[in-house]
Design brief:
The chain has one domain. The chain contains five helices and no strands. The chain has about 130 residues and is mostly helical. The longest helix has 28 residues.
Length: about 130
C-alpha cells in the first residue's frame, strides 16, 4: 500500500510541477498569496480575475514535499530580487526567505496529515483490476 501511495505521489508531481511553473511564468501574480508578506505588501492587490484563477488552480494542486523541494526552494535560489517577476516588488527580501517556504511546508503537511493522507489510504485500499 505504501509503495502505491509513493508511486502515485511521484506520478502526480509531474503535472503539478507543469501547472505551477507554467502558471508562474505566465501569470506570477496568481501565486502572490504563496509568497512572503513583504512581497505581498509591495505588490498591488490581486484583481478579481486573478483571485478566481488562484482559486481554480489552487483546487487542482497540493503536493507539499515536491512543492518545497522542486519548486519553492529552486525558485527562491534563482529569482533575482532586483528583477522580480511581480512588478512593484523590487528589492523584497522575501524572495530569498527560505524559512518562509519551510514554514509553509510544515503548515501544509499538518493539513495533509489531517485530511489528505487518510483519503489517500482509502484510495490506495481500493483493489486495482489486474
Amino acid at each position: 500500500m505504501l509503495t502505491r501511495i509513493a508511486a502515485d505521489g511521484r506520478l502526480a508531481c509531474v503535472p503539478f510541477s507543469a501547472v505551477v511553473w507554467a502558471s508562474f511564468l505566465l501569470r506570477p501574480r496568481i501565486w502572490l498569496h504563496s509568497l512572503p508578506t513583504d512581497i505581498q505588501s509591495m505588490a498591488a492587490p490581486k484583481t478579481p480575475a486573478e483571485r478566481r484563477l488562484t482559486g481554480w488552480l489552487g483546487s487542482l494542486v497540493l503536493i507539499n514535499t515536491w512543492d518545497l523541494v522542486g519548486i519553492d526552494l529552486p525558485y527562491a535560489y534563482w529569482v533575482n530580487p532586483n528583477r522580480p517577476p511581480i512588478p512593484g516588488t523590487a528589492g523584497a527580501r522575501g524572495y530569498k526567505d527560505f524559512r518562509f517556504h519551510a514554514r509553509a511546508f510544515l503548515k501544509a503537511s499538518v493539513f495533509g496529515l489531517v485530511l489528505i493522507n487518510p483519503a489517500a489510504v482509502v484510495i490506495a485500499a481500493v483493489p486495482v483490476a489486474p
